[in-house]
Design goal:
The protein has 219 residues and is an alpha/beta fold. Helix content is 52%, strand content 15%. Helix 1 crosses helix 9. It starts with a strand and ends with a helix. The structure holds 2'-deoxycytidine-5'-monophosphate.
Length: 219
């Protein structure tokens, strides 16, 4: 496809699951930008770095590659590791560092340069790809988002309570929305989809309908 799709929204709104399926159906490349911030976070934990300057140095030297559903840091597959709870709890703080965002912005724009990507994140429609032809903002109420995350973590064998997840989500939302540099926000020209009462395929269909209308073809 000769266009890009931006999918933004808070944690647990269903972005990545939906974005993966949309990319698959349209034969486009899926890029999970949250995983990139998670990769830097994982690296900082592995190297025991907490100082912002040290973390920026790590980020400047790291090689991050995304291939299909996998993310590689310096050639190592970290797809599973970036989703652990320690990374999840620390990532929002790392994603606030302006220098890190500048580095990621460059990388993400490079990945989208030849078009044909479905990119999910927080600032894709507003800051990374303001010219993306299709922009969606997925959201859902906090209780529903916490329940989805809880289910996912339990399935992956992590021990957490629903109350804790809900607290973490509220905290992360606040950090993502209030940060000074490219915060989570709805792009003016984005279609807002509330996924609280919808299943994954309903959301996918809604997105495909928009694109179908825009492109004037039957998908
Ligand atoms: O979507 P996720 O939960 O994997 O995102 C992890 C964190 O990274 C989350 O706190 C928000 C941040 N993030 C961001 O600031 N900008 C993006 N484009 C993607 C994610």
């Amino acid at each position: 496809m000769n266009f890009n799709i931006a999918i933004d929204g808070p944690a647990g709104a269903g972005k990545s699951t939906v974005a993966k399926i949309v990319a698959d159906k349209l034969n486009m490349t899926y890029i999970d930008t949250g995983a990139m911030y998670r990769a830097i976070t994982l690296l900082s934990i592995q190297h025991g770095k907490n100082d912002v300057g040290d973390i920026i140095n790590l980020a400047q030297e790291v090689e991050i590659k995304i291939h299909e559903k996998y993310i590689y840091v310096n050639g190592e597959d970290v797809t599973e590791d970036v989703r652990n709870l320690e990374v999840t709890n620390k990532v929002s703080a790392i994603a606030q560092i302006p220098e890190i965002r500048v580095l990621m912005t460059k990388l993400q724009r490079e990945m989208a340069r030849n078009k044909g990507v479905v990119m999910d994140g927080r600032d894709i429609g507003t800051a990374i790809l303001p010219d993306a032809k299709y922009k969606f903002y997925l959201t859902a109420n906090v209780k529903e988002r916490a329940a989805r995350r809880h289910k996912e973590l339990i399935k992956n064998g992590q021990k957490v309570t629903l109350e804790q997840i809900e607290k973490d989500i509220i905290q992360r939302d606040r950090q993502d929305k209030l940060r000074a540099f490219s915060p989570l926000a709805v792009a003016e020209d984005a279609a807002i989809i509330d996924t609280t009462e919808k299943n994954i395929m309903q959301v996918v269909q809604e997105i495909l309908c928009y694109i179908k209308r825009g492109e004037g073809f039957v998908l």
